[in-house]
Amino acid sequence: MEFNSSKGYRTIQTKTKDWLRVFDFKSHGTNTVYRLKHEALQFLNFQKGVGHLSGQMTVNIVVKGIFTPGCGFETLQPGGRIGNFIPGLKDKWWPCDSPDMTADSVNDIIKILESSVIPFYEKFGSTESILSIATEQKFSFLWENPLTFIDKGFFYLYLKKYEEALSIFESRQPSRVPKFKTIKNLFDQKQFEAIDRILIENTLFNTRKLKI
After folding, report:
1. Angle between helices 5-20 and 99-112 (to 10 degrees)
2. How far apart are CA 187 and CA 182, in angstroms?
3. Residue 163 CA: distances (Å) to CA of 12, 106, 184, 195
4. How confident is the prediction for the chain on average, in pLDDT?
């Protein structure tokens, strides 16, 4: 069978998925692999190019708090292209239309995953690291979508930084935040454990919905 970009794309997917299994990533559908670790849904989405990017592919890197309302695979935010983890780049596509170029692409992608993406995901096990992800310029690509302020606010709630979370919500569109009025009232009454229970309820709902 003649080699083409579709075969190269599938080869990159297969070999990358096989490598990621060591880190407990599982397949979700055809184009996504995920794991649930440190209360975060961490997933990679493979994307084949079209139009002038035909014959190439890229990877989207996504992370969502499992305690955030609406956590799921439907959107790729908070997240961004894997190119954000390469110094000097933002968007990076790899060729997949010949055996040699596909093999080189596999090696290059795995190298970036090992040196940058996996360590990034591991940061969610540390309060200080989550705060750095929420505030440092090098991670600002995660929050470029206007609605990711909700995700960021819920990460602050998860860290029990309630005042900072409310500040994030109130500085944007609090009407878009599920249960905002309830959370605000509980904060005013200093019922912080009740706020924590909202996140626990979200976690239980999302894990059942996603079957993970």
Report:
1. 30
2. 9
3. 44, 44, 10, 12
4. 96
